[in-house]
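quick one before i forget lol
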Amino acid sequence: MPTLKAEQIFSLGRFLNITNTYLTSLIVVMIISVCFLIIRKKIALIPKSPQILIEIIFEKLYNYWLNIFGEKNIFLFSFCLTFFIYIIFANWFGVLPLVNSLYIVKDHEKVHLLRSVYSDLNMSLALAIISIVFINVLCIIKIGRQFIKKFIGFIGFLEFVSELSKILSFSFRLFGNVFAGEILLLVISALIPLFIPLPFIILEVFVGFVQAFIFFTLTTIFLRVALKDNH
């Protein structure tokens, strides 16, 4: 049964500990990179079915993003889309039976070699920090002193608490859903190991998409509010 804390697999030097969730995240990044390299080589002026499907998905996401943000900006859209792609790949990879079935023996105990990336609160917290810090840094660059002033005084303290609450909301929402799904799949698989867990796997695939889409949407909304409402 997985614990709230990710298990350490090995160490690189004295200060870099590689956990099973971090190792899974590295594998996911490699998979995404390979997929994009393949897609890049396959892009043609006259698209075939796979390229048409990718273009339709990209267009739908961009139009959805544009309706929220209200201004064409491919750089900011790419920033938000990167979260969506990474989270959905990580969530779907974590549903694979391979992830929870591989073990290593460490200190005479079985330890999962791989584990769902966002079943580790540290991983979801890191992603949330990247999102909120980027938004605030971008606002400082674009708006300048006017944006910094909102963090001064008692109201500024409340604004700072609000930014922290966004980080906590982001991280706990993603972590809670993924960790609960991981526990559910392990329990169902242990009790009924054959075909019955399949509907729950399909459910987790859907939940993985929803969580990625929510993160994408909230990042867009926070960007819109920070950039538009502070001018």
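fyi The chain has one domain: 8-228.
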